Amino acid sequence: MVKDSGWPVKRRKWNAEMWVGYGFIFPTMAAFLVFSLIPTIGVIILSFFDWNMINTPVFLGFENYIEMFSRSEFWHSLWVTVQYVLYSQVTKIILALSIALALNQKLPGMKLFRIPIIMPWIVMPIAVGIVWKWILSPSTGLLNYYIQQVGLPTVTWFSPGNVLQSIALVDVWQYFGFTTVLFLIGLQGISPMYYEAASIDGANKWRSFWHITLPLLRPTFLFVLVTAVIGSFQVFDIVYATTQGGPGALSKVYYYLIYEKGFQQLQMGYASALSVFLFVVLMIMTMIQLRVFRDNQ
Amino acid sequence: MRTAGNMIAYLVGIMASIFAIFPFLWMVSTSLKPQNEIFKFPPEWISSEVTLQSFLRVWQSMPFDRYAFNTFIVTAVILAGTLVFASIAAYSFARLRYPGRDKLFVVLLASMMIPKIVTMIPVYIMMRELGLIDTYAAIILPLVFAEAYEVFLLRQFFATIPGEMEESAKIDGAGIIRTFLTIIVPMSKPILATLTVLTVVKSWNNFLWPLIVTSSESKYLLSIGLANLNGQNTSDWAGIMAASFIALLPILAIFAVAQKYFVESIQLTGLK
After folding, report:
1. Domain limits of chain A?
2. Which residue of A40, A89, B1, B162 shows the fewest CB atoms closer than 10 Å?
3. What confidence tens digit (pLDDT) does each residue in A165-182 have?
4. What residues does the ABC transmembrane type-1 domain cover (chain B) (predicted)?
5. Rounded to 5 degrees, what are φ and ψ at B82?
6. CA atoms within 13 A on the CB side of A256
7. Which member of A28, A126, A283 has the closest CB to residue B207?
8. What CATH architecture does domain A66-296 belong to?
9. Given an 8 Å threshold on Cβ–Cβ distance, is B142 in contact with A31?
10. Residue B261: inside a domain, yes or no?
């Protein structure tokens, strides 16, 4: 029994704190294992198979990926998503920053404006899509009525020429307030000393905006940009409610393609390959975000 | 100059608010109109006749009471689970000492990088193998044990609570669980309220996952019922707006009493 003397020295006793400690994290960690980690490995494995959920899976090697990269629908969806991200994000960021600059004035009641503008952010995207479909209805919609009232030509929303812009408009409406509040938080983190120093140096408002506000807002900018891009790469509900990917496949965003391949056509292997590709893209963007965030700490 | 600037600031605030709110008002306005006045030109914000018949009509065409009940049950269970599991896990990560704690926390945080779509196909297959397709369990299970960012949110808050309070409770002979329940939880009401609003919104509005795992009307959530009504391509906009109104009302009601926590939750997102 000489051997035994060696290791109890290092081994800590299981005290109450350890039991409770592990016990308290157990449900969340187990769920992480079952619903995140194992499925992530699963989707990678599945992407090498052909499986329609009925027959036995057939191993294909990289064939799903080869097929994916050679199909125009993949490139089309990717391109549609990128365009959509550009339309929605550029508009949203410009709008949100402008509103945040206005609401950042130290004036009575300014804080109250935050309440209405974040209301769209909390409501069901499916309902949002539906309500906007009604507002943007080409012949009987409210918006075209007002467009007509101010003497502009009416717009056939969700038509081939503007379907992505139409969906982007709905997205901008839903999230501009959220983004505005993020910018406001960023703006409030800038010390007034900078502006005082600048005005002593005779800088006008425009110059201090360019040389103080924008550079110091950089962390907020990057955070907003990266999270919003990641978020809108995963747009689905609004598309489902408004166009279902149409007309034709003109608004078939990437997420919609995965849904269609996986859950409507039951091409589980192919849909998994599509998911893995998206995962890699989003992972790269998340890493950029983390890197940027760390640099700003 | 000063006043002109102030005027512009107020004007921007008012215009942004109108932009944010008019779709809600138009939804309510349309839902209260009789069907034959929907396409009236020019459009009227307040119709001469205010009626609730559209609500009755959609209620009769689809079991919206069932959908509302399902959505409520699913949301309530997810909320209860999230509050309990996120707070005990967060307390453990913030305060208790045991080997491997910080490594496990980093592993959990890494899961925030995994988007839902990646896990969706395998989790669906898993649910099918377990015979859980078309049950509440399939909707609830992936969310009820709290997600990484929820644990993270609470852990950051718990870490700011001064340790002396727990020390004095310990001296009085309270165990770990007692200390957690009598000291930490009461001090964490604001963050728990924030977590509550975030979780309720998330599970109330949930759409794609419930769409995939449910197939019978008796299990549909409001979001799915609404999407189906919309998919019928009717021109009954009054009915569709009434259904949308029903789906949004509970969240808007929570917002009315707890906007403060919604604004705070954005603040926490920004700090992430």
Report:
1. 3-46, 66-296
2. B1
3. 999 999 999 999 999 999
4. 68-258
5. -60, -45
6. 24
7. A126
8. Orthogonal Bundle (1.10)
9. yes
10. no
